[in-house]
Amino acid sequence: MIIVRPVRRDDHNALRELARKTGPGFTSMQDDDKHVEGMINAGVAAFECSPPPADAYFLFMMEDTETGKVVGTCAIHAAIGLHDVWYSFHLGTTVHASRELDVYSALQTLTLSNDQTGCSELCTLFLDPEYRHSLNGHLLSKSRLLFLAQFPHLCGETLVAEMRGYSDENGVSPFWEGLGRHFFSIDFTRADQLSARNKVFIAELMPKHAIYTNLLPEAAREVIGRTHDATLPARKLLESEGMRHSRYVDIFDGGPILEAPVSSLRAVRDSRSYKARIEEVSAQDQPYMVSSTELANFRCGTTYNIALDDDAASLDAKTAAALNIRAGDSVRIAPLFAERRTQ
Amino acid sequence: MLIIRPVDFPDLPALERLAITSRGGITTLPANREYLGQLIGQTQNSLRKKVALPGGESYHFVMQDSDSGEILGISGLEACIGLDSPFYSYRIDEVVHASGELQIHNRIPSLHLCHDYNGTSRLCTRYLVPESDTLVNAHFLSRARMLFMAKHPQRFARRTVVELQGMVDEQGRSPFWESLGRHFFGMDLSQADYLTGINRKTFIAELMPRYPLYVPLLNESARNAIGQPRPDIEPVMDLLEDEGFEYRGYIDIFDAGPTLEVRTDSIRSIWQSQNRTLQIRPDGAPASGDRQMMLSNNGTGDFRVLLTRGNLEQPQISSSEAEQLLLHEGDSVRVLALDTDDLAKSDSHLHP
Predict the structure, then answer these.
(1) Cβ neighbours of residue A16 under 8 Å, at least 6 residues apart?
(2) Are A227 and A164 contacting, i.e. CB atoms less than 8 angstroms apart?
(3) Which of A109, A166, B92, B112 sits CB 3.0–4.6 Å from B249 for a disulfide?
(4) How many H helices and E strands in chain B?
């Protein structure tokens, strides 16, 4: 069975292997021993500390329990911008009008902001290409929402997710070329890599005054808030959970930042906690996400074999074993999809 | 003979013709009869007013051929700008964006809307009809104003500015306006200029960008226009720089033409001009020298300037010239040599 669990110290090689597969441009997971070590240290600390730090980095691994193989990873940053400063561009409107001259122009502005400071962020999601089938992608992404439902006190009230912005077939970001390049005089890739390590230079280099978007080249203007084609499925998935493009975009590539109050997320609203019963159950017509409820032993998987009544959930022995759930344990359950799907 | 004198009411039809010939090229000379009438009225009122400190006065002077009576040009002075409605400029500031770690040091110029030149005096509305637009006439028309300032320092502010028209492309469009102002105003530059000229300036505050503008974000043609005068008025800029005017990084908010400034008492024509006692040359006697020079009386409402040749130390003029200057033998006269390096080619036209 495929499950999602907290990172462990012995995941180093597996994570390094995944990082190797991400390829360039995946800044939250770089193919670099030191970087991977840092991720693991932060991830382990988040689950081991009691209580976890306010800006805990909850790093999860997706594992095939039958082979013990790590096949994916995902993470939640409990609060962004508390240590490193979080930057985004706020898309504002400024109206210039003169009644006397019968002129009215509503102009869009981009203002450097730190407005998402303290929000939780969905970050670092990568699934081994060989495992991109069945329900794995949905589980990997949405297990984090079930985690947020179970541990709301560990996270912010608002959840954000940065979508990779548009770049052309040569990897050129028109937004960067039209804006950031003037201020950085370095390539997008380098700026993006640097920003993953240290954001001080953003403050040092980025424009502090609002930018009128109509002064930007058309190519840059057109991609404000546009998601990279490869990231569209991820955006669709998060939108089906209730996340929406707020009026914020990434400062480098203009990609949209999706946002929603944690309490309004579909998986959070639809989830409930039950007492586990272990018995043979017949298959449902839709899959459910099931998770254990202890922080350090958090496990999350999907199953069709489930029966729910008022306060008890029946799981089959195989599922319960894979999730380390014993009879009488508290479990959290939500349908995997917002809408019932016909198989 | 060419004379320069304050504009008066009978000049209105001639002024209108000038405004039409200038085809909207001069912001402060719109082809609007009512406005031009006010311009004359303001000049006459200002000249009559007793002034201890500069205020809303403005003075316009016309260049006239005393034989034909034809009006060939106009130039103006405003005593103190920005009183009724603010005077806007862009100030070019450099913001340094630097990161020691990345070894990046970028100096980013940005444009800040400002009122820094409020309260200064301004040279304005300089226009010569094309057929009289020679270098000598340009100097004469421009610098005659300074003789007026020399005589009436209390009527002007400590600093004086002058705005030069900015770059235009082959179609006569301002690249700066097309790339910036048009987005905010939604109208042609000529229309915006016209509205500024007839003093409906509040719209600038209503429509102009409120945030500073990063120059690198403007397109190339707009960037290249910043602080550049229209090529054909470079001789005017030379003239003004020769007078001591300097570009200090302030530009016009519409076409990005440079605004030049100077300490009023450092204007060369002001400190170089001298008071002398006038002598009238007997009819038929030869001129006493051949320095090209400007002579003005020390009047206010009856201020007159003319261009002649003679001896700077002991100015002598013909009786008909004295008649034009409204002066008699022994009167005090202000003299100023017109010779500059530029005037070597004194007969060449400004527009070849």
Answers:
(1) A31, A33, A36
(2) yes
(3) B92
(4) 11, 16
Sort out which chain A residues have CB atoms less than 8 A from B98's CB and list them. Answer: 204-205
Are A81 and A123 a contacting pair, CB within 8 Å?
A: no
At A194, which amino acid appears? L
Collapsing DSSP to helix, strand or coil, B186 comes out as coil
Alpha-carbon gap, residue A137 to A238, rounded angstroms: 12
Rounded to whole angstroms, how far apart are CA atoms A44 and A28?
17
In this predicted structure, the answer to whether residue B151 has a pLDDT above a threshold of 60 is yes
Residue A242's identity, in one-letter code, is: G
Prediction pTM value: 0.78
The full 3-state SS of B65-106, as one line of letters, equals ECCCCCEEEEEEEECCCCCCCCCCEEEEEEEEEEECCCCEEE
Q: Give the closest of B104, B185, B217 to A215, CB-based.
A: B217
Give B99's contacts in chain A (Cβ within 8 Å).
200-201, 204-205
* Token pair for A224: 């404000």
Q: Tell me the helix, strand and coil percentages in chain B, rounded to 5.
A: 35, 30, 40
Tens-place pLDDT, residues B212-261 = 999 999 999 999 999 999 988 888 899 999 999 999 999 999 899 999 99
The answer to whether residue B206 neighbours chain A at the CB level (below 8 Å) is yes
Strands B159-163 and B121-128: parallel
Contact A211 B106 (CB under 8 A): no
Say if the Cβ atoms of A200 and B211 lie within 8 Å: no
Which of B132, B87, B76 has its CA nearest to residue B113?
B87
Crossing angle for the helix pair B12-21 and B33-48, nearest 10 degrees? 120
Strand partners of residue B333: B276
Across-strand partners of A72?
Answer: A62, A127
